[in-house]
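Researcher: Structure prediction, please.
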Amino acid sequence: MILFFIVLAVSIAILYFVRPEPESLRTPIPGYTKNLLQVKFTLFTVIFLALVHLLITNFTFLKVDKEIFYVFSLKNTHNSWLFLPVQTVTHSFIHTSTLHLLGNLAGLVVLSVYERRVGSWRALKVFLAGMLAAIPSVFLFSSPTIVAGASGAIFALAAAYFIDQKDLSNREWGLALVYIAFIFGAYTVYSEIKTGNMHNELNFKVDHIGHLLGVIGGIIFCRLYPLTSNKTSMNISTQYNKDNNEDVATNGALSSGLHTSKHAEATPQDKEVPGFSAVSDELVRIDKVESKDGLYQEFIHIDDTLSTPFIRAVEKYQMGGGENMLKEETFNVLFRIQDRLARYHNKKTSLEELINLLEASSLKEYLSHMRKHIR
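Model: Predicted structure follows.
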């Protein structure tokens, strides 16, 4: 029973504290609670599988009760076909031993990175696709056979991790399938060599056919129902103009706003200077801002999806706390802006130079907090 709570505590702690770096720069690193809520499917499945194992071990969490196991496992014998509809579902949630369960729970926790990318509902659908695809494996054995475990469904998640990407070309699909085949082959050889006593309680062996069918099920699902690009735009009202108190509407800019004052301190620039024309980017946009004298200066817009965590950290710091959080978010936002600006002509800068550039940006009022940590 103590082992049950230890397994749950460790699994939940990993899901709570480990915050993978987002794949997209548009996505800020979430807080710990939000980080856990992003993997609701994994969290629920880990708890559910552990509870089921607790029940079939008569609350010891150690030795499986053979009679209970036999009732809910999937078999290919004629005298068990009456219960086949029930067993096709229940067999995926029971395990032959505690080690068998721990291996699958570890796989689920690792593959939570896939759920973070595609969402809980899609991860659940892939899991179910793999679970259903693995069912026929029991009927491919000529001798009486019993199968159990969620491995087929977990292998479907593993396959989807590689191929469930937006707008993959045929070449990219082919490369992903090569990766999957290599990893699956390496795992199969390794598990055959190291099987040993892993499932010796009930004299079970690894069902590689079920694993392969689970992989195929995941691949087919992702091929039939691919992820598609779904770009959305944001329209956010910004703060009033600093000098004339007129509201300025911008697209995706910070709440600090674009100060297009008639008295803007513009550095004289010629309209025809190469690399100075207004350019656009999803997260960072550089514009030419015209002053009263007809001169131009660069103004850097920073999308709120990039800067909001930093601004919240500043607000928390101003209320008397969160200095470490402010330091972390300062480097976070600066590195992200630095990375985006480096894609523009002549905009590769050090962090100190970047802060100077941000004097003409929608983050201008927060630069004192940045300079405090960049020395």
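Model: The two ends are 53 Å apart (CA to CA).
Researcher: Thanks, that helps.
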